[in-house]
Amino acid sequence: MTTAHHNTVSSPALPPLRLGIAGLGTVGTGVIRLLRTHMALLQSRTGRQIEVIAVSARNRTRDRGIDLSALQWYDNPIALAAAPDIDVVVELMGGADGAARALVEAALKAGKAVVTANKALVARHAQTLARLSHKHDAPLLFEAAVAGGIPAIKMVREGVAPDALTRLGGILNGTSNFILTEMAETGRAFDDVLKEAQEKGYAEADPSADIDGWDAAHKLSILTAIAFRPILFDSLAVSGMRRITTSDIHQARKLGYAIKMLGVARRLADDRVEAWVQPCLIPAQSGLAQVNGVYNALTTEGPFSGPITISGQGAGEGPTANAVMADIIDLARGHALPLWGRMAEQAPIACEPIEGLPSRFYLRITLKTPSDAVPDATTALREVRTILENEALPIESGHHHMEGDAAQLIFLTGTTSLAEINRLLPILEEVAFINGTPLALKLEDLP
Amino acid sequence: MTTAHHNTVSSPALPPLRLGIAGLGTVGTGVIRLLRTHMALLQSRTGRQIEVIAVSARNRTRDRGIDLSALQWYDNPIALAAAPDIDVVVELMGGADGAARALVEAALKAGKAVVTANKALVARHAQTLARLSHKHDAPLLFEAAVAGGIPAIKMVREGVAPDALTRLGGILNGTSNFILTEMAETGRAFDDVLKEAQEKGYAEADPSADIDGWDAAHKLSILTAIAFRPILFDSLAVSGMRRITTSDIHQARKLGYAIKMLGVARRLADDRVEAWVQPCLIPAQSGLAQVNGVYNALTTEGPFSGPITISGQGAGEGPTANAVMADIIDLARGHALPLWGRMAEQAPIACEPIEGLPSRFYLRITLKTPSDAVPDATTALREVRTILENEALPIESGHHHMEGDAAQLIFLTGTTSLAEINRLLPILEEVAFINGTPLALKLEDLP
């Protein structure tokens, strides 16, 4: 083949690939455990030995259940970037800034390949990292940063690389999916399930990253950059799931929908991009609606490739270690790509403001507890529907049900926009018999 | 990085990658259409131009809906292998032998990279092809040979490459899945649905490759070689779906199972491999049970990666063209691997004979139409259960139902073996009130 690239299938004997690992939490020890368990397999897959020669972590004496005595120990992780005998720096410390960022940047500047599971770092500093990677010809791989053990990055950057995707969407956070699944299956309230998730170690003491959508937003930002083009992270619209009740899940199900915390990105005309993270109603028979518990899943759609869905464990020692090691295998095989899988860097753009995007919505309106001032539910349904239709909101269906001692009205709208919904919510709040702020959830049609 | 491999992310300007395509059916024209539609995207993904310069097909004058006037035309496909200006030969003619095989072997011998969608060729002549690929340092890629647009090969050869998988299994044939889905959803009989599938073009006039399992067997053989080790194709146990009735699907559903045509391979102790294609009962809530219509899906399981499922369109112009082009992108990026993703060739082995493998079964026994010689269904159920238990077959449950004018007995066995089932079938056939040969279907537990 006439190519400047190295396209060989019969490799000469290659020197060992030497790793330095920063961060020895669950994933770091998982990577070492995987390497030791599957050493012969890894060698047969790559034709070379892959070995950890150095580690860095805060606590030198903690028992991690694995023998680290033969490894060099660096108290300062940045030193891994300078170590001449390390080929690949594996950053598993976490955090968008601080030591993790300093190490990754130093390693790239030293021309070393970097493998990381750090979604916040990649999502928030992509432009700087892409530039360093390119300038110093140092690959930066991050399969483990998105959806744990699922090869989601590989699927988008390679598997459907030929296709101009029109949309990608997924369940990108296992904790929030676990909570929604438990609420749906057991009827328990959000706070109760969250507490259980925290006790089981599925959720952090501060659950915000998971349930307010930030963790999913980091992952979506990365996927969007690969599939469409880089976006400014702060322009992503993110909203969390704290207001979802078990009753919402049941009402949605009655209407043929499941409620899932989704991250979705769409290619719009003129190279614009729509991207957001929020709880949505999706068709109950869609592939993503079947993904339950701590599982993650990603669906891509393109004019040639059609819909493809991949699902698996989104976190945990084993799956994440598998993803880290898949990147290391790619490096050992000599396969590396620019950060977003494109040869020319594209400047990040702001996502399209979500307020103007066409969408349907689920609208939940709670009435005040019955009294002389509160009409019966049937009358209230008719009156509120009239208010909405007088404001030119298309209504496709409406029903009422009792929730505790108050009635709730549930509407499905026709195609409108968040701007319209936001204009109508204060109008509804002023209706004398309506209690609190109505809840609006986006409907997203997924295959 | 100290590596003999080319691990660069900032590529120099590369010459165009020039393709010669043999076979201009649906997939061949689809590949040309994709190239022309997504030319800018492909260039941005690879940093080089990808162009078709030559084609070969039987009929030079047929209208294929695309302009071929600028391309060199070869009447003899083998000539593509010798053309000095072609970098990659794309074989889309099909057939395990004949012109397709001659072209692929000639191209590899000429040191050219080959991309093919030809599952029969790869499954049946893997050892020869692997040797030629290695000897002449010519990559042979075949993502499109397995599960159409789904990046199944990439997932197994790269995504879960670090893990020693314990099992992989999938719905690897869209036609048979379409038929089973239609039977389940409409209650129509097998023959009736097959006829419709043939009229719609989903099934061939001779449907044997699809419904007797041979198409799935080719794909399973390829996946098994990558995940575990190469197997002798003829040692694969293959059985078809012609005896499945709509009633079987309904009875299985009552018991909490779906019936799917599956290809499954398992890693056994001592480097042995179990692999087979057959209709199976799988848990109704498992991921594969949700995969309907012409969709394909693959689940892998490993100690680190856990269960991962990928699903999408298993055939058709767009998805298959996407898969072919994904391989071409890998070549353009300089990423190529040995046939099975391992550096050292392993000799193929025979699969473990399935007769001795432990399994549970679904057993359907039809009684003769009611007469004085035929006991009532409750009595028959008790008598047959006694016969089976006297033969030491563990029975977990049994029930009866009417199917047309005769009663049927349905048993789920405990763990036994196909050898035991095969020993008992003639004993059952000799029972005076049993009509015909009972049907036994394997139960496969899938996540």
UniProtKB/TrEMBL annotation, chains A, B:
Which pathway does it operate in?
Amino-acid biosynthesis; L-threonine biosynthesis; L-threonine from L-aspartate: step 3/5; Amino-acid biosynthesis; L-methionine biosynthesis via de novo pathway; L-homoserine from L-aspartate: step 3/3
Q: Where is the Homoserine dehydrogenase catalytic domain?
A: 151-329
Q: Which Gene3D superfamilies is this protein grouped with?
A: 3.30.70.260, Dihydrodipicolinate Reductase, domain 2, NAD(P)-binding Rossmann-like Domain
Q: What is its EC number?
A: 1.1.1.3
Q: Which residues form the Aspartate/homoserine dehydrogenase NAD-binding domain?
A: 23-143
What PROSITE patterns does the entry give?
HOMOSER_DHGENASE
- Glycosyltransferase keyword on record: no
What are the record keywords, sorted? Amino-acid biosynthesis, Methionine biosynthesis, Oxidoreductase, Threonine biosynthesis
Please indicate which superkingdom the organism of origin belongs to: Bacteria
Look up the coiled coil feature and give its residue ranges: none
**Protein family (similarity comment):** Belongs to the homoserine dehydrogenase family.
> What is this protein's record name?
Homoserine dehydrogenase
Tell me what organism the protein belongs to. Bombella saccharophila
